[in-house]
Design goal:
- The protein has a domain of about 150 residues: Alpha-Beta Complex (Aminoglycoside 3'-phosphotransferase, Chain: A, domain 2), CATH 3.90.1200.
- About 35% of the residues lie in helices and about 20% in strands.
- The strands form 3 sheets. Strands 1-2-3-6-5 form a 5-stranded antiparallel β-sheet, with helices on both faces. Strands 4-9-8 form a 3-stranded mixed β-sheet, covered by helices on one side.
Length: about 300
């Protein structure tokens, strides 16, 4: 969406309320404010756009800068209206309207939500704190090890007494729903595999795929027997930030809780690994090493 046309849809009363929360002082006027799109590697089908809004507020005759992020979500395919669907389109707005993120185990930080606004066109605007990583760089082994350990402590808290939320719109069968959704929209590989096979050494890949596909229900049944924990399920690099708190303590912040689910213990670790591999954050030749390393 064009930022200029989008800026005309900004509710100034809500903007003033959000800036008031950011600066912790009543703000009735902001000036020189602008709106810039945030470019992501990939966007969810339910996401219309993500934007950074920034500007200046006059506080006691001083000009104070501020910034925040607005994420716009919208309805999608019919199945996305089902609260138990893995990609239920309203879930992230509902998560931020609830107290779920306020009650996470202490090892996970989240961005503050300032407002969840429902527009007349049916879209939902989520007004949030802007999270900026201390240094934008390629993560090291130590960074991935830190994230994996935090996920283990996060998941483990629910095994040792942390209360699971009970809202009905939290997905209870995320991986099964995701696999079903993929099959609905994916091409049938049995059609094109014979066409690309000559001259390429794909037999091992094909055999691995067919073995997994034929046994996927058994794997899902096994996962269903694991202890139930709260899971993020969308651990791409763009949704994770590592910062140093007060010069010493590392802090992991997770954003984008659209896929929030109650899943099997350890599923988040699998998602961390799988997404890092698919997006090239872990190189293919490092795959076997990182699989053992993270676990």
């Amino acid at each position: 969406m064009n930022p200029l046309s989008l800026s005309k849809r900004v509710d100034m009363a809500i903007l003033h309320q959000c800036v008031t929360k950011i600066l912790n002082v009543r703000v009735n006027c902001v000036k020189n404010w602008g709106l810039d799109p945030i470019v992501c590697k990939s966007l969810n089908f339910t996401t219309e756009g993500i934007y950074r809004i920034h500007g200046i507020a006059d506080i006691m005759e001083k000009e104070v800068p501020w910034s925040l992020v607005v994420k716009i979500i919208k309805p999608g395919q019919v199945e996305m209206n089902d609260p138990w669907y893995h990609n239920y389109w309203r879930r992230e707005g509902l998560v931020n309207q609830s107290d779920i993120l306020d009650n996470l185990p202490h090892v996970i930080n989240t961005s503050k939500c300032y407002n969840v606004e429902e527009k007349t066109d049916g879209s939902v605007w989520i007004w949030m704190e802007e999270i900026i990583e201390d240094s934008i760089k390629i993560w090291s082994e130590n960074d991935y090890a830190f994230v994996a350990r935090q996920l283990g402590i996060f998941n483990g808290a629910y095994v040792t007494g942390h209360t699971l939320p009970e809202q009905t719109w939290i997905c209870r069968n995320w991986l099964e729903s995701w696999i079903s959704g993929c099959k609905r929209y994916a091409s049938d590989p049995t059609v094109y595999y014979p066409q690309i096979q000559p001259g390429l050494n794909l037999e091992n890949i094909w055999n691995s795929y067919t073995c997994l596909n034929n046994n996927v229900n058994k794997h899902l049944q096994t996962l269903s027997k694991l202890p139930r924990v709260l899971a993020h399920q969308d651990l791409s690099r763009q949704n994770m930030f590592i910062n140093i708190y007060q010069g010493e303590e590392k802090v992991l912040t997770l954003i984008d809780w659209q896929f929030l689910s109650i899943s099997g213990l350890g599923e988040d670790l699998g998602k961390l690994y799988g997404v890092a591999m698919s997006q090239g954050d872990i190189q293919s030749e490092q795959g076997d090493y990182y699989q053992k390393f993270l676990f």
